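Following the same procedure, sequence and fold were stored together, as reproduced here.

>
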Amino acid sequence: MTCREFAWLSEAADDPSACLTTWASDPRAPYMLPTGRFFDVVSVDQRVGIEALDQLLRRRLPFGPIVLDHRARRMGFFLVSQSWQDFAHQLARGEGAAPAHRYLSHGSVVVVPGPQPVLGDRYEWLRAPTRRPSAGPLLPVALAAVLVASAEVLTCADRYGENPRPTPALAPAAREGVWAHAG
Protein backbone atom coordinates (compact mmCIF):
# COMPACT_ATOMS: atom_id res chain seq x y z
CA MET A 1 0.00 0.00 0.00
CA THR A 2 1.17 3.50 -0.72
CA CYS A 3 1.40 6.26 1.89
CA ARG A 4 -1.80 7.84 0.54
CA GLU A 5 -3.72 4.57 0.84
CA PHE A 6 -2.27 4.04 4.30
CA ALA A 7 -3.32 7.57 5.35
CA TRP A 8 -6.87 7.22 4.01
CA LEU A 9 -7.39 3.97 5.89
CA SER A 10 -6.02 5.35 9.15
CA GLU A 11 -8.33 8.39 8.84
CA ALA A 12 -11.28 6.01 9.06
CA ALA A 13 -10.21 4.99 12.60
CA ASP A 14 -11.84 6.53 15.68
CA ASP A 15 -8.34 7.66 16.66
CA PRO A 16 -6.29 8.08 13.45
CA SER A 17 -3.05 8.86 15.31
CA ALA A 18 -3.34 5.66 17.38
CA CYS A 19 -3.93 3.71 14.18
CA LEU A 20 -0.88 5.30 12.52
CA THR A 21 1.22 4.58 15.61
CA THR A 22 0.11 0.93 15.60
CA TRP A 23 0.92 0.51 11.93
CA ALA A 24 4.22 2.38 12.24
CA SER A 25 5.37 -0.07 14.91
CA ASP A 26 3.92 -3.14 13.15
CA PRO A 27 2.73 -2.72 9.54
CA ARG A 28 1.24 -6.23 9.65
CA ALA A 29 -0.99 -5.48 12.65
CA PRO A 30 -4.71 -5.80 11.98
CA TYR A 31 -6.81 -2.85 13.12
CA MET A 32 -10.49 -2.46 13.94
CA LEU A 33 -12.15 0.34 11.95
CA PRO A 34 -15.69 1.65 12.38
CA THR A 35 -18.01 1.32 9.42
CA GLY A 36 -20.61 3.82 8.29
CA ARG A 37 -18.58 7.02 8.30
CA PHE A 38 -16.16 6.54 5.38
CA PHE A 39 -17.36 3.18 4.11
CA ASP A 40 -19.82 0.32 4.62
CA VAL A 41 -18.90 -3.35 4.29
CA VAL A 42 -20.89 -6.33 3.02
CA SER A 43 -19.64 -9.51 4.70
CA VAL A 44 -20.31 -12.88 3.04
CA ASP A 45 -19.15 -16.47 3.31
CA GLN A 46 -15.77 -16.96 1.64
CA ARG A 47 -17.14 -19.35 -1.01
CA VAL A 48 -19.73 -16.86 -2.19
CA GLY A 49 -17.19 -14.04 -1.95
CA ILE A 50 -14.57 -15.79 -4.07
CA GLU A 51 -17.15 -16.60 -6.75
CA ALA A 52 -18.43 -12.99 -6.63
CA LEU A 53 -14.89 -11.63 -7.00
CA ASP A 54 -14.33 -13.89 -9.99
CA GLN A 55 -17.58 -12.66 -11.57
CA LEU A 56 -16.67 -9.01 -10.93
CA LEU A 57 -13.26 -9.47 -12.53
CA ARG A 58 -14.44 -11.47 -15.55
CA ARG A 59 -17.22 -9.04 -16.31
CA ARG A 60 -15.07 -5.99 -15.60
CA LEU A 61 -17.60 -4.61 -13.14
CA PRO A 62 -16.62 -1.92 -10.63
CA PHE A 63 -15.71 -2.93 -7.08
CA GLY A 64 -13.88 -1.48 -4.12
CA PRO A 65 -11.49 -2.87 -1.53
CA ILE A 66 -11.96 -6.48 -0.43
CA VAL A 67 -10.69 -8.05 2.78
CA LEU A 68 -10.51 -11.75 3.62
CA ASP A 69 -10.59 -13.21 7.14
CA HIS A 70 -9.02 -16.64 6.70
CA ARG A 71 -10.01 -17.97 10.12
CA ALA A 72 -13.67 -16.89 9.94
CA ARG A 73 -13.76 -17.78 6.22
CA ARG A 74 -15.54 -14.51 5.42
CA MET A 75 -14.95 -11.78 2.86
CA GLY A 76 -15.76 -8.10 3.26
CA PHE A 77 -16.61 -5.96 0.23
CA PHE A 78 -16.19 -2.23 0.88
CA LEU A 79 -18.83 0.18 -0.42
CA VAL A 80 -19.26 3.90 -0.04
CA SER A 81 -21.15 4.68 3.18
CA GLN A 82 -24.94 4.81 2.98
CA SER A 83 -25.13 2.38 0.07
CA TRP A 84 -27.71 0.20 1.81
CA GLN A 85 -30.73 1.29 -0.26
CA ASP A 86 -29.09 0.69 -3.64
CA PHE A 87 -27.67 -2.62 -2.43
CA ALA A 88 -30.95 -3.86 -0.91
CA HIS A 89 -32.97 -2.73 -3.94
CA GLN A 90 -30.75 -4.73 -6.30
CA LEU A 91 -30.83 -7.79 -4.01
CA ALA A 92 -34.63 -7.72 -4.13
CA ARG A 93 -34.56 -7.49 -7.94
CA GLY A 94 -32.24 -10.48 -8.33
CA GLU A 95 -33.43 -13.60 -10.12
CA GLY A 96 -32.34 -15.92 -7.32
CA ALA A 97 -32.25 -15.85 -3.56
CA ALA A 98 -29.87 -13.42 -1.88
CA PRO A 99 -27.00 -15.16 -0.10
CA ALA A 100 -26.60 -14.88 3.64
CA HIS A 101 -24.76 -11.63 4.30
CA ARG A 102 -24.17 -8.92 6.89
CA TYR A 103 -24.36 -5.28 5.93
CA LEU A 104 -22.06 -3.33 8.25
CA SER A 105 -22.72 0.37 8.63
CA HIS A 106 -23.05 2.82 11.57
CA GLY A 107 -22.43 1.04 14.86
CA SER A 108 -20.38 -1.81 13.39
CA VAL A 109 -16.67 -2.41 12.95
CA VAL A 110 -14.50 -4.33 10.52
CA VAL A 111 -11.01 -5.68 11.15
CA VAL A 112 -8.58 -4.84 8.37
CA PRO A 113 -5.03 -6.02 7.76
CA GLY A 114 -2.20 -3.63 8.30
CA PRO A 115 -0.71 -1.90 5.26
CA GLN A 116 1.90 -4.65 4.76
CA PRO A 117 0.32 -8.03 5.56
CA VAL A 118 2.34 -11.15 4.88
CA LEU A 119 1.14 -14.39 3.32
CA GLY A 120 -0.31 -16.51 6.09
CA ASP A 121 -1.69 -13.63 8.18
CA ARG A 122 -5.28 -14.07 9.33
CA TYR A 123 -6.46 -10.94 7.49
CA GLU A 124 -5.54 -10.32 3.87
CA TRP A 125 -6.37 -7.66 1.33
CA LEU A 126 -7.64 -9.32 -1.85
CA ARG A 127 -7.92 -5.82 -3.24
CA ALA A 128 -6.19 -3.20 -1.15
CA PRO A 129 -7.80 0.21 -0.84
CA THR A 130 -6.41 2.82 -3.18
CA ARG A 131 -8.89 5.49 -2.10
CA ARG A 132 -12.31 5.74 -0.53
CA PRO A 133 -14.92 3.74 -2.44
CA SER A 134 -16.56 5.87 -5.14
CA ALA A 135 -19.98 7.39 -4.55
CA GLY A 136 -22.85 6.38 -6.79
CA PRO A 137 -25.00 3.31 -7.27
CA LEU A 138 -22.70 1.27 -9.54
CA LEU A 139 -20.65 -0.46 -6.84
CA PRO A 140 -23.54 -1.59 -4.62
CA VAL A 141 -25.70 -2.58 -7.60
CA ALA A 142 -22.91 -4.59 -9.25
CA LEU A 143 -22.00 -6.27 -5.95
CA ALA A 144 -25.60 -7.22 -5.16
CA ALA A 145 -26.15 -8.63 -8.65
CA VAL A 146 -23.02 -10.80 -8.61
CA LEU A 147 -23.64 -11.99 -5.04
CA VAL A 148 -27.07 -13.31 -6.07
CA ALA A 149 -25.63 -14.87 -9.24
CA SER A 150 -22.69 -16.36 -7.32
CA ALA A 151 -24.97 -17.95 -4.73
CA GLU A 152 -26.99 -19.49 -7.56
CA VAL A 153 -23.86 -20.82 -9.30
CA LEU A 154 -22.69 -22.42 -6.06
CA THR A 155 -26.11 -23.95 -5.41
CA CYS A 156 -26.06 -25.50 -8.89
CA ALA A 157 -22.47 -26.70 -8.42
CA ASP A 158 -23.36 -28.29 -5.08
CA ARG A 159 -26.21 -30.18 -6.77
CA TYR A 160 -24.01 -31.32 -9.66
CA GLY A 161 -23.67 -35.08 -9.69
CA GLU A 162 -26.85 -35.74 -7.75
CA ASN A 163 -29.24 -38.18 -9.38
CA PRO A 164 -31.09 -36.19 -12.01
CA ARG A 165 -34.84 -36.04 -11.70
CA PRO A 166 -36.37 -37.30 -14.93
CA THR A 167 -38.33 -34.72 -16.83
CA PRO A 168 -41.76 -35.77 -18.09
CA ALA A 169 -40.29 -36.36 -21.56
CA LEU A 170 -37.59 -38.67 -20.15
CA ALA A 171 -39.77 -40.44 -17.58
CA PRO A 172 -40.73 -43.43 -19.85
CA ALA A 173 -37.11 -44.00 -20.87
CA ALA A 174 -35.96 -43.70 -17.26
CA ARG A 175 -38.52 -46.30 -16.14
CA GLU A 176 -37.20 -48.66 -18.79
CA GLY A 177 -33.61 -48.04 -17.75
CA VAL A 178 -32.76 -46.66 -21.19
CA TRP A 179 -31.67 -43.10 -21.80
CA ALA A 180 -32.79 -41.73 -25.08
CA HIS A 181 -30.52 -39.40 -26.98
CA ALA A 182 -32.25 -36.50 -28.65
CA GLY A 183 -30.34 -35.90 -31.80
Remarks:
- Residues 138-159 form the longest helix (22 residues).
- Residues 91 and 144 are 5 Å apart (CA to CA).
